[in-house]
UniProtKB/TrEMBL annotation:
<dbReference type="InterPro" id="IPR007436">
    <property type="entry name" value="DUF485"/>
</dbReference>
<feature type="transmembrane region" description="Helical">
    <location>
        <begin position="59"/>
        <end position="82"/>
    </location>
</feature>
<dbReference type="InterPro" id="IPR052959">
    <property type="entry name" value="Inner_membrane_assoc"/>
</dbReference>
<keyword id="KW-0812">Transmembrane</keyword>
<keyword id="KW-1133">Transmembrane helix</keyword>
<keyword id="KW-0472">Membrane</keyword>
<feature type="transmembrane region" description="Helical">
    <location>
        <begin position="25"/>
        <end position="47"/>
    </location>
</feature>
<dbReference type="Pfam" id="PF04341">
    <property type="entry name" value="DUF485"/>
</dbReference>
<protein>
    <submittedName>
        <fullName>DUF485 domain-containing protein</fullName>
    </submittedName>
</protein>
Length: 102
């Protein structure tokens, strides 16, 4: 019975679409996140002077807003993934479940 269910799911075109779309989207967001994070780490490693430069007459340096951007970007990327997962990915999952149970 379990193997039959697995075969039904694997043969469903919505399953193949779900795997393809979710994987591509996940890797795209992962690439963006890695670019931002490792870009910040490389900036710390190779251009400390820039990060230590003050933004105005106060005490804040460029490192603080750039670091904050990395944190906010992480939250935004997570929110984007969750929103799309709750909309498109859940719809495809429900369609797969409906076809398999029928």
């Amino acid at each position: 019975m379990h193997d039959d269910l697995v075969q039904k799911i694997k043969s469903d075109p919505n399953y193949h679409q779900l795997v393809k779309v979710r994987s591509r989207f996940g890797w795209a967001l992962t690439g963006l996140m890695m670019l931002v994070y490792y870009g910040y780490i490389l900036l710390i490693a190779f251009n400390k002077e820039f990060l230590a430069t003050k933004t105005g007459t106060g005490v804040m340096t460029w490192g603080m807003p750039i670091g904050l951007f990395v944190i906010v970007f992480t939250v935004l990327v997570t929110g984007i993934y969750v929103r799309r997962a709750n909309k498109q990915f859940d719809d495809l999952s429900n369609a797969i479940q409906a076809r398999v149970q029928a």
